Amino acid sequence: MAKVTTEIVARQLKQTLQHVRRNDNTLLNAQTAPHIGAQQLSLTQLQILHLIATNTLPVTNSLIATTFNISKPAVTKAIHKLADAKLITSIVSEDDHRITTFALTETGHTIANEFNDTNATIEQTYAELAAPFGKSDRKVILKFLTALDAAIDAGKPF
Prior knowledge:
The protein contains seven helices and two strands; from the N terminus they run H-H-H-H-H-E-E-H-H. The protein is mainly alpha-helical. The chain has one domain: Winged helix-like DNA-binding domain superfamily/Winged helix DNA-binding domain (Arc Repressor Mutant, subunit A, Orthogonal Bundle), CATH 1.10.10. A two-stranded antiparallel sheet has the order 1-2. Helix 3 packs across helix 5.
C-alpha cells in the first residue's frame, strides 16, 4: 500500500466534507419528501418532531433548546413553522400558564415516523461502511471522528 501522508488524508477529508455538504442529506430529503411536500422542513425541525414523538416527558421550548443546543428564539421560530404546518399543537399548562408543551398532530406523527425510519436507514449505511474495518481500525476512525467533532465545536474552519 502506498504511503498515506497527512496531506493525502487532509485532501480526502476536504473532498468528502464538500461532497456531504453538496448532497445535504439527500437520503433524508428523498425518503421524507412525499409527506413533507412543500413544507421544506429543516433537519432541526425534523429532529424536534422526533423529540416530541419519542420523549416520555413533556417537551417544552427549554427542553428543545437544551437538547439541540440552539437559542430559544430559534426554537420559537421552528415551533411556529411546525405549528403553521399543522404538525404540532401547543398545550398551555393549567397549573402554570407560562409553560407550554407540544404534541404531534396525525400528520406530525407520520412525518416523525418517516424520519425515524430514514434515520435507521442512515445508521445502517454507516454500520455497513464500518463493517469491513477491523477493531483497531474502527478505534482509529472513532478517534479521528471525535477529534473532528471537537474541531467543529471549537469553531475551526472547514
